[in-house]
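U., I forgot to send this yesterday:
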Amino acid sequence: MSDPPKTNETSSQPATGRSQEPTRKGQLGPNYLRIIEEDEEYGHALLEPSEEQIKFEREALFEDLHLDRQRSARSFIEETFEEEMLGPQNGTPSTAESPQSYIPIRYRNPPAAAPVHDVFGDAVHAIFQKLMTRGPPVEYCHWMSYWIAKQIDKDSPVKYHECRFTPDQYVTENTAEAKKAYLDNMWKAAEKNLWMYTYNSPLLRTKWTGIHVSAEQIKGQRHKQEDRFVAYPNSLYMDTSRSDHIALLGVFDGHGGHECSQYAAGHMWETWIETRASHSEEPLEKQLKTSLDLLDERMTIRSTKECWKGGTTAVCCAIDMNKKELAFAWLGDSPGYIMDNLEVRKVTRDHSPSDPEEGRRVEEAGGQLFVIGGELRVNGVLNLTRALGDVPGRPMISNQAETCQRDIEVGDYLVILACDGISDVFNTSDLYNLVQAYVNENPVKDYNDLAHYICHEAIAHGSADNVTVVIGFLRPPQDLWRMMKIDDEEDEEEEEEEEEIDDE
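Result:
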């Protein structure tokens, strides 16, 4: 097995500038950048690349990375936008033999216009959700959604990515149209880069860095999907101008609507970057809490202006692989776990009315606890005692996150964040067994589908809720597979021993 990937996290910047000769599939090369000279057969460097050069750049590999991270950015973009690249099918759309006498119209109230400081984050998350439905790895979706939004923003008369949050300003003019334009121009922004040489496109020069991640969300038996998540391997996936190496993971389980969970996932990266810029010397757990406080401040204003009635849980984890430490911050009952070589341990505690400390705090704040449907609820409504949003429920529903920080031990392999749709059907032993089963049934190259497997198993075991899982690898996936893989020879010996016992 080859060495763990070198992630270049000291700089965490896209690979740029001149580099050594790239190589095609099956060969090794330190980079896939290639300088095209004017007199080469590929054509002029400033013009469109030839088909041969495009193929060359698509198939080139990063030799110092592993698994999907060896692949070029061009190959991911082409896979994601395959339908658009193929263009319209031959022929014309079929028409009905007899035209309908009427056209059914579905009416929906138009969404409220967002403030200018929220447009860019809303757009990035909307593009991310769209890309996730097409099947590429989550880290690629984070990376590409930012790039597409930034590309479109450059052509916008208003540079929304430069609009900063100001508590006493709430300008919404033309923002609904602006948000729609981001989604409408996704393919146009991607295509513009595909018709460039790698050398001339910063987007195509991207080199994957940070921890490996896996994430999935499934609607389950609910009518609506109110879960959202983030899984950033480092800050490069949040903002390409940043060089911060710390990973950020989060799960947000919405209630009373998807608005608050969607807002959290769309803007957590902005408050995290803001916090890191001004509080980087503080302990990691304090930075994480400050980031959630800023997020809730912004969400509270938006909730009040747009009359959002719901809220969202939050469980977040910041991972500093350089200092070998991580921090959790959470509100509500979405759990956070750490898996080592022996077990999965739950790190968080549920903020629910059944917790004596939480129940006492609710009553001291003026709330009451009622048993509804066999479980305690705050004022007979919510089975949580802390959440982001839930403005009408304050102060009984607290917006103050609980935190913890710990060192990353040698035997730690995974951070697992989930919603209660997972913890309702699986305990910590179940989660460990699920990871082990997946490792033994699948090759290491499929590590990014681990979260998908756990979500589907939760549905199969009767979870009626939305289910979401985010996994951060504290060691390269290859190490997890080495540790948990059961050798075929050992299996055969165990089977022979069992047969001997049966014969006796």
